[in-house]
Fold this sequence. Notes:
Keywords: DNA-binding, Pyruvate, Repressor, Transcription, Transcription regulation
Number of strands: 2
Radius of gyration: 33 Å
Distance between the termini: 123 Å
CATH architecture of the largest domain: Up-down Bundle
Number of helices: 12
CATH topology of the largest domain: Four Helix Bundle (Hemerythrin (Met), subunit A)
Domain HTH gntR-type: 9-77
Protein name: Pyruvate dehydrogenase complex repressor
Pfam families: FCD (PF07729), GntR (PF00392)
Largest sheet: 2 strands, antiparallel
Function: Transcriptional repressor for the pyruvate dehydrogenase complex genes aceEF and lpd.
Amino acid sequence: MLFQPVASRAAADDVARQIEHLVLEGVLHPGDRLPGERELSAQLGVSRPILREALKALEANGLIESRHGGGTYVAAIEGDIFAAPIVELIAASPKAAEDYLAFRREIEATAAAMAAARATEADRTILDRILLQMEEAHRAADLQREAALDVEFHKAIGEATHNIVMIHVLRACYRLLSEGVFRNRSRLYGKDGSRDALLAQHRSLLAAIATGDAAMARNAGIAHIDYVEAALKADAEAGARLEIATRRLIQFEERSAPRRAPRRTVKDDAKDAGGDADEGTSHSARKG
């Protein structure tokens, strides 16, 4: 059971602390719906007035939110990692994309090693089930779902570290992906051969974590980001070559096209007529 009964004569603060703990440890995710009031009070073993008081305090602190007619949900507690102006600058900067991958290489390698050392059987079960869903999406050629599950897989690795700071740093990191600041996933999953390679890399990560081999997990994490970086670089270079080649073709066709005589204007006709008159006058003068 997700929620545990609190001690007898528990106050609203005790109820709130249990929910806060589940949020902090990454058990409850942003957007998760809490059970209804009757069910939740029964699980916690408290009266409904005490539960309401606890939920009111949590909502005041911004940890949960009530939706009219839709229940109570965990709020988007990560917030924005950067303010909107800097997000726009980051999205337009090739160097920022490179720095983002360099950051991910280090933090994901560390997270994979920590997960291999600390993951419980429940953590490994979560990772295994996400990978199975990825394989299903892969077989169905559902690129969008496969890419979304890619992010969920890496978030689950972060949670398997059982390090609170790592969990929330990785969530903030992946939020940049979900918001489209870095479009790595869409570019990679639309590239021939990349989907197979990425799935194999995720299998290697899970195998290393499942066997508890921290060094192997670290190397698998580094190899994964190295592949992503190399694939994106090759894609960018191919795009640049295509753009230049297309421009060359346009210019080649322009040079090869038959040259047309300039279109005559009224001024051209008037000029020619004036020239003929002058020539006739000059000829008459010489003859006289």
